[in-house]
Write a structure and sequence with these properties.
The protein has 238 residues and is α+β, with helices and mostly antiparallel strands. The protein contains three helices and 13 strands; from the N terminus they run ααβββββββββαββββ. A hairpin with a 2-residue loop joins β4 and β5.
């Protein structure tokens, strides 16, 4: 009897020690408890709120200094005529945003706009402005650069700006436990600009212009990144 009693006491002690060392007994189940004082949800997909207003069917005339002064003689039944370079033109018959390339990065100029409490609304305290320029993806001359900028933004320098207004009301749903922050930024579209070049020559008989000769120098496609203003939000939970 004494031996059985000793064995029972030892078994009970061993079970108590095992339970004390068990992770389930020492570590509480955290479940969905936050891992820090504040958690940040994944930012929402940016929404476009502003785009530049360009112009269509534009052309620009310029003088190519490499062609100026290189006269040539034409032998005709009417006698020798002189063909003299006058000027050149660039024209853009059309432009297009490449399909599937309307969210081009990197996103830049991320700017805090305002913070809305859960279930509430707010507005921007001070106007926020973002600025960017067209990015031409090829090495082009000054004249063509101006034309491309005009076609996409209406500005010869390709500049674009957007102001986030104080009049807009921002809100956060009650499902956001703490607050929702709104941000503005610049992103880009990837576009293609189709450019035609033409060289114009005057044909002279002596000092008199007989007619004008036009030479089509072909077409080129130039890729550009066009800035636009976007807006996105981050939700914060306690």
């Amino acid at each position: 009897m004494a031996l059985n009693r000793i064995l029972a006491i030892l078994a009970a002690s061993f079970a108590a020690l095992t339970l004390a060392a068990s992770p389930a007994a020492t570590a509480p189940n955290l479940g969905n408890a936050p891992v820090s004082n504040e958690q940040v949800a994944t930012p929402t997909v940016p929404v476009i709120v502003g785009k530049p207003q360009g112009q269509n069917n534009l052309a620009i005339a310029f003088v190519d200094q490499a062609l100026k002064g290189n006269d040539s003689t034409l032998l005709t039944p009417q006698g020798n005529l002189t063909e003299r370079y006058a000027y050149s033109t660039y024209s853009i018959p059309y432009k297009v945003i490449e399909e599937g390339n309307d969210i081009i990065g990197p996103r830049e100029q991320d700017s805090f706009l305002c913070s809305a409490p859960n279930g509430g609304t707010t507005t921007i305290v001070n106007p926020v402005e973002v600025r960017a320029n067209v990015q031409i993806q090829s090495n082009v001359g000054i004249e063509l650069r101006k034309l491309i900028n005009l076609v996409w933004t209406g500005q010869t320098n390709g500049s674009f700006k957007h102001t986030y207004s104080k009049a807009k009301v921002y809100s956060a749903p009650e499902s956001v436990h703490n607050h929702r922050d709104y941000y503005g930024a610049i992103q880009y579209d990837l576009g293609t600009t189709v450019v035609n070049r033409t060289d114009i020559y005057h044909v002279y008989s002596g000092d008199r212009i007989l007619y004008t000769a036009t030479y089509d120098r072909g077409q080129q496609r130039i890729n550009v990144k066009i800035p636009k203003a976007v807006e996105y939000a981050k939700d914060f939970y306690l």
